[in-house]
Write a structure and sequence with these properties.
Blueprint (H helix, E strand, L loop, with lengths): L1 H12 L13 E9 L3 E4 L15 E8 L2 E8 L2 E2 L1 E11 L2 E4 L6 E9 L6 E9 L6 E7 L1
Antiparallel strand pairs: 1-2, 1-3, 3-8, 4-5, 4-9, 6-7, 6-8, 9-10
Length: 141
C-alpha cells in the first residue's frame, strides 16, 4: 500500500499529459496572402506584400512553428476570424501541410479578411511553454 501511495504521489507530480505540449513556440510569421485583386502571394520571410491586395475577398495565413494557443489576428485594428487550422509537418525540407505524413511541427492558421483593402496586419500567439507571446506586424498593400 505504501508503495502505491509513493507511486501515485510521483505520478501526480510528473504531469505526463503535458509532455506532447511541452514543445515551445519557436517562430511565428505570415506565410501567404490571397485576395480577389492580387491572387495568391507567398510572403514568408518578408515584412510586406509586393502586390496590391484587397477586393471582394482576402485571406491571410500565419504559420506557427512549435505549439501556441489563443492566436489572434487584426487588420487595421479590427479583429479577424480564424477560418481554418491545419497541422504542419517537415515535408520537402520546409513546413508544409502534413496530409497524413510526418510529425507535426506547428500549425497554419487562415484568417478571413474579406472586404478589406489591406493595411497593418498584426498577429499574436501565446506559447504553450515558457516565454513571451510571439507578435508579428506585417504590411499588406
Amino acid at each position: 500500500m505504501k508503495a502505491c501511495v509513493i507511486a501515485a504521489t510521483f505520478l501526480a507530480a510528473c504531469p505526463i499529459s503535458a509532455a506532447p505540449h511541452s514543445n515551445n513556440l519557436t517562430r511565428a510569421y505570415v506565410s501567404w496572402v490571397h485576395s480577389a485583386r492580387a491572387g495568391a502571394e507567398l510572403v514568408e520571410g518578408r515584412s510586406s506584400t509586393a502586390r496590391d491586395h484587397g477586393g471582394a475577398w482576402m485571406r491571410i495565413a500565419t504559420d506557427d512553428i512549435g505549439y501556441g494557443r489563443n492566436a489572434q489576428a487584426r487588420l487595421l485594428g479590427s479583429p479577424l476570424r480564424e477560418i481554418r487550422t491545419e497541422a504542419l509537418c517537415h515535408v520537402g525540407g520546409r513546413p508544409n501541410p502534413c496530409n497524413g505524413r510526418g510529425t507535426v511541427i506547428g500549425y497554419r492558421r487562415t484568417w478571413e479578411a474579406s472586404g478589406r483593402e489591406g493595411g497593418n496586419f498584426e498577429y499574436m500567439v501565446i506559447p504553450n511553454g515558457v516565454g513571451a507571446p510571439a507578435r508579428v506586424s506585417f504590411q499588406i498593400r
